[in-house]
Amino acid sequence: MTAREAALKALGEFRRNKKRPLKSLYEQKAKSSISPIDAALAEQIINGVLQNMAYCDYILSCFSTFSIQKIEPRVLDILRISIYQILFLSKIPYSAAVNEGVTLATKSANKKAAGFVNAVLRRIADSAADGSVPSLEIEDICERLSVKYSHPLWLVQKFCEAFGHDGTEALLTSNNDDSSPITAQVNTLLTNTEELIASLAADGITASMHETFDDCVDFRCPGGIERLAAFKKGLFYVQDASSHCAVLAASPCKGDYVIDGCAAPGGKSFAAAVLMRNTGRIEARDISAAKLNAVSEGARRLGIGIIEVLVCDAVGADSNANVAAGGGVAADGVVIATASADGSVAAVQTDSARTGGTVLANASAALADVVLADVPCSGFGVIRKKPEIRYKTREEIAGLPEIQKKILHNLSSYVKPGGTLIYSTCTLLNEENEEVVESFLRERKDFALAGFSLPGFGDVPDGMAKLLPHVHHTDGFFICKMQRKA
Fold first, then answer.
1. Cα–Cα dist 250/479, whole Å
2. 3-state secondary structure of 228
3. Neighbour tally for 178: CB within 10 Å
4. What average pLDDT does this structure show over 335-344?
5. What is d(CA 246, CA 424) in angstroms, rounded to the nearest whole number?
6. Above 50 in pLDDT, residue 285?
7. Calpha distance 400→425 (Å, rounded)
8. For residue range 315-333, what is the model confidence (pLDDT) as tens digits?
9. From CA 259, how far away is CA 180, in angstroms rounded?
10. Which residues of 320-341 are buried (b: 16+ CB within 10 A; e: fewer)?
11. Angle at the Cα of 107 (from 105 to 108), degrees rounded to 5?
12. Cis peptide before 265 (omega within 30 of 0)
């Protein structure tokens, strides 16, 4: 399988089934004989097409005798792949991009489609060669930004309302910059930053201290981090600085009892354990037992012994009223479990008559010092890492705020008087951030916003911070700190 064939298949599965393109590519790598070089090119093409789809379509519309809507979807994918190479990949000769596109069309469609692809791509390649690629003749600023940076118009309009036209263009530019490195947190339970950088260097990886956080490093790692000795030894875990900031805002201390309400993949639980110096108790909760298995395995790799994993629905399947009254957490619909010695999820069946069929292990009636509510969201703050996220529709995300409110109300019941509640998302939309918090505080008069400070961000006296990729060089992220009144 060639790079372009792999890219075509992945983009087709995304178009038809919304399957994450890179997941599709990784599955292809496991099943076929695609070379590492071709796999890397396929990944670049996939991300590049997703980042520039609307712009490629605009250029196509200037040279095609057919409207975009009348081009067969698979042929359109082939054209996008080829146009992206012509316009953005300077190391690939125009002739190679054209010829490979025609070959793909011949294999995947028919001779007539191949002839159409050949004619269109040759006109575009000639235009690129003589510097006459059409400019964007779009008067409306939001529409022009939408096409130039290939973000849906409705999303660009949302960003313009929040950040202005200049701020939005800077944000969209950052979203399309795929040069951001891996950001990893140093496991200071086992090592320090200098030792980690040296260990990575021994594996041929050049790492540098993060510009803001001393216990954080940036690096690039072709071939995956799992092969690195430092990873196997548990010297670091991957977590963006923005997500780490949510735990810094919470400030858990040695001996605290912490609940991470939507824990998978585990980064916040790991960060809290490191800050607590592996002393205290952390309940990592999630609805997926499979994901919690990975959290348990991660904790074991990092040498963390205070994390328990609990399978339950953060929306509110367990009995909040019972918890708030100090009556325990036994109720229908929740499975509470701890990690077994081999890292898998283990659970103990209790008396079903007493618990209503609930599976429990190490249940506690105590309320937590810190509760983290990092809720499911639209993800529009991590477009730079997952370019396909931009194509979520308004209809797909319309119900998220109500789910987020339910999770926040549910998890708030576990906060002890005087304790801390963190609400966070990796999106930049107000309706999933400030509006959810404001709605919650109107109903819960026993909670109030609490100020905090963050490295590189400064003081946050009103208790709400929004990290922006183009400003803070992190993922887009929202953090709100609240305190339950004593």
1. 10
2. coil
3. 14
4. 40
5. 7
6. yes
7. 11
8. 975 433 333 333 333 333 3
9. 31
10. beebeeeebbbbeebbbbbbee
11. 65
12. yes
- Alpha carbons 30 and 9: distance in angstroms, whole number: 14
Residue 337's pLDDT band, with cuts at 50, 70 and 90, is very low
Dist CA 382 CA 391 (whole Å): 13
Q: Which residues contact 181 (CB under 8 A, 6 or more apart)?
A: 218, 219, 220
Q: How far is CA 72 from the centre of its chain?
A: 32
The H or E element spanning position 121 is: helix 111-129
Phi-psi region of 340 (alpha: psi -120 to 50; beta: other; left: phi over 0): beta
Q: Which residues contact 339 (CB under 8 A, 6 or more apart)?
A: 296, 299, 300, 307, 308, 309, 345, 346
Q: Residues for the chain: how many in total?
A: 486
For 112, other C-beta atoms within 10 Å of its C-beta total 10
Q: What angle do CA 443, 466, 382 make, to 5 degrees?
A: 110
SS3 per-residue string spanning 281-327: EEEEEECCHHHHHHHHHHHHHHCCCCEEEEECCCCCCCCHHHHHCCC
Residue type, 346: A
Per-residue pLDDT band at 178 (split at 50, 70, 90): confident
Query: How far, in Å, CA of 267 to CA of 359, rounded?
Result: 26
Q: Enter the tokens of residue 459.
A: 């003081």
Kindly indicate the confidence band of residue 1, based on its pLDDT and cuts at 50, 70 and 90: confident
What does the radius of gyration of the chain's CA atoms come to, in whole angstroms? 25
Assigned token pair, 5: 């064939």
Q: How far apart, in Å, do the first and last CA atoms of the chain sit?
A: 63
DSSP one-letter string for 170-223 = HHHHHHT-TTPPEEEEE-TTT--HHHHHHHHHHTT--EEE-SS-TTEEEE--TT
Task: Count the neighbouring beta carbons within 10 Å of the beta carbon of residue 30.
Answer: 8
Would you give the distance in Å from CA 216 to the centre of its chain? Answer: 18
Measured over the CA atoms of residue 308, residue 313, residue 314 and residue 316, the dihedral's sign is: negative
324: its two tokens: 């708030």
d(Cα 109, Cα 132) in Å, to the nearest integer?
30
Residue position matching structure tokens 């849906």: 152
Q: Write the pLDDT tens digit of every residue in 391-421.
A: 999 999 999 999 999 999 999 999 999 999 9
